[in-house]
Amino acid sequence: MVSIALLKTYMEEKRVFAYAGKILRVNLTTGKVSTEPLSKESAKNYIGGIGLGISLLMDNSKPGADAFDPSNPLIFVTGPLSGTMGPTAGNGYAVVSKSPATGGVGEAKAHGFFGPDLKRAGYDAVIITGKAEKLSYLWIDDDKVQVMNAEQMRGKSPYETDMAIREELGDYYIRVSAIGEAGEKLCRFAAIINDEFRAIGRTGMGAVMGSKNLKAVAVRGTKDVNVADLGGFRDFIKMIHERMKGPATAKYRTLGTPENVLVLNSLSALATRNFTNATFEGAKKVSGEYLNEHYIKKIVGCATCGMRCDHIAVVPEGPYQGSTSRLEFECLWAMGPLCGIDRLDAIIEGMRVANEYGMDGISIGVVVAFAMDLYEHGIITKEQTDGIDLRFGNAEALVAVIHKIGKREGWLGNVLAEGVSKAAEIIGKDAEKYACHIKGLELPGYDLRTLKTAALGFSVSFRGACHLRNGAYSHDVKGKVNRFKIEKGRGKLIADEGNMYNIIDSLIVCKFSRGTYFDGWKDLANYYTLATGIPMTVEEMTKDGERIENVARLFNIREGKGTRKYDNVPYKIKNCPVPDEGPAKGACISDEEFQIGLDDYYAVRGWTSDGVPTIEKLKELGLDGLAYIVEKAKPNEGIVPCN
Amino acid sequence: MKDRKFVAADPEKCIGCVVCEYACSMTNEKTFNPTKSRIRALRMGPLNNIAVTCRHCEDPACVAACPKRALSQNEETGMIIVDENLCVGCDWCISACEFGAMMLHPEKRVVFTCNNCKDQPDGPQCVKWCPEEALELVTSDVLAQKSRITAVKKLFGEALKEPKK
């Protein structure tokens, strides 16, 4: 017989803190709602956030099903720290699904106030499948879950939807994550937005939501979130709070990420006019310094955060007077230098409008820059733009085209809402040469011709062109490597940091705060254990990071998008040398060095030369169950000479 | 009530980040749950934020409104004391308080409000944790001083500003 004391110890050991311990399933076609427990094993192996989300995506999706197929699960996930006072991690959530932009893993995170309420309502994840008959929103009121009519909110911005739902339900503290018109109209880079301007921005998660006729998820969570060791946890976060007031986050609290404008410009790494130039003559006028002096009204922050980064810009005068938006470097770059535009008032308005329709602020800029490039090269005509003079540098044209895309208005708006990769296919006539994307996702703000570790890192990212899957740009920008060259050794830098970033996005720690974890892995593992009570070593956590990377890769392979030929860089990066005078003149990426880089990265990852995880690697990570994907993958189907 | 002190938020500094709510529930309830916090922050658009809690008014409407005599005020500190045995959760005090500083506890079903963290040796924990240093434990005198200083600064600031060229 088991003694009561022993049983009690056993129960104690089983007790998991910080997690809600529950997954919610909603089928919008049938209206069926159910819950199931979150296993301790899933928690420990995939943490939460994108890790748990990608694992759930793998297990809950039909191989080969289109991103817009009702069976494609749209997964809202919190992290173990969501709902705690953990600075930045306390306020996050992630959305994971198959991406309509890339056909592979789609994922994005957002902070603010929505995530903690979802956790307090009692859920680690919400798996939404099916398609509602009419436009609806999901109302999660702790244990009570309902599908509500949202037809009256059709065409409303995410913020208007937020307000309308709070009004309808009669509680100001309800938190809402919603799509705008772009998501309803299946723009492939549509975002999901909470708290006015906090976006699940990349990989078109808003379009998946739109395809399900789901306008919003509204949540009210009133339950306690308890951590395993309250005293230890309090001391730990106090330490992080203090560090957040120090130099590690100074950039984000002062000039903010727009500081990058002049830094990158000085390195000939500020991609300009759709990756034609690598420096921008108007850089000063769109710099963080100029922005802060003339436009920033207040700097605010998310729930529980010890720093503050939300630079709220207000246009004081001119045609866009009063336009208000949060503005970060990436979006500023995409709608500014990349479009050859040096007017911050128009960029702020562009950002505001992108938020209003609910679109990825990076992709929208890259899409407009692509259209401008095509216009300047005569590939699209003034007739096709409905009379808009779509030259580089035309600020009014930028704003006008964003409206068109948001509404899918006219030929141009409709084609561009598909994103650059699919738009190029539709347009033909060599348009693909001007489409700056990787795997279908538009490039973020780094000129890959002069930041070559970044080029390799972005190309192997499982969600397509992304600076935040492995932070590869930082080695180049900080001068830790020769940024004009890809050589052996870069693979390890990218893989190591990639594993770390997977964990950061699974804990849903804000990357702006990554510098406050002085002891890196040790801090993160400690943080996890203090909150959850689940023992976690640095080795185990590193392995989790690697496991998440491999499952994402396997998902992409299963969907036919995961092998070597998909790890590539855009045409312009390989074929159009930097024309600007200076140390970067003539820089571009040769296929030879790029292939060396891929070989190096795959070797570090324990993948085949086609970029497929080996059976041994899967066994090592406890992923034997996914071996069928590897066995089915055609060997070397695609070492296609790159463009 | 010479010693009357309360937590006040500076609207210029407060960003509505709700760290105060978490600090409060952690300290007073040993859990993370803003619905059990004695201070609540409000964000109405990115530019308008404020955290609100009990100001221990000189003539507290909540005490006057209580039909069960469950509320009283400490004569020295001004703090509102809730007799949880007498409170029936009728919410009259909640409608009487113009600041939304009186709230119904979600589990106990009796009202609760700020107690200045009277058992904490270093005072109100929301003040300690506020990353913006927007919260302060003040007396009405100090508050008036601060307002005067702000007003004078504004006056002279405007006067000294050079005209735009």
CATH C-level category of the largest domain in chain A: Alpha Beta
> What is the annotated CATH architecture of the largest domain in chain B?
2-Layer Sandwich
How would you sum up the major sheet of chain B?
2 strands, antiparallel
Overall pLDDT score of chain B: 91
Give the amount of beta strand of chain B, in percent: 15-25%
Calculate Rg of chain B over CA atoms. 18 Å
Total number of helical segments of chain B? 5
Number of domains of chain B: 2
Give the % helix of chain B: 25-40%
Explain briefly what this protein structure is.
The complex is a heterodimer of chains A (643) and B (165). Chain A has 643 residues and is an alpha+beta fold.
Describe the structure.
- The complex is a heterodimer of chains A (643) and B (165).
- Chain A is of the alpha+beta class and 643 residues long.
- Chain A folds into 3 domains: 18-220, Aldehyde ferredoxin oxidoreductase, N-terminal domain (Aldehyde Ferredoxin Oxidoreductase,  A, domain 1), CATH 3.60.9; 245-442, Orthogonal Bundle (Aldehyde Ferredoxin Oxidoreductase Protein, subunit A, domain 2); 452-632, Aldehyde Ferredoxin Oxidoreductase Protein, subunit A, domain 3, CATH 1.10.599.
- In chain A, 40% of the residues lie in helices and 12% in strands.
- Chain A has a 6-stranded mixed β-sheet with strand order 2-1-6-3-4-5. A 6-stranded mixed β-sheet of chain A has the order 8-7-12-9-10-11.
- Chain A is globular.
- Chain B has 165 residues and is an alpha+beta fold.
- Chain B folds into 2 domains: 1-53 and 114-165, Alpha-Beta Plaits; 57-113, Alpha-Beta Plaits.
- In chain B, the strands form 4 sheets. In chain B, strands 1-8 form a two-stranded antiparallel sheet. In chain B, strands 2-3 form a two-stranded antiparallel ribbon. A two-stranded antiparallel ribbon of chain B has the order 4-5.
- Chain B is globular, with a radius of gyration of 18 Å.
- The termini of chain B are far apart.
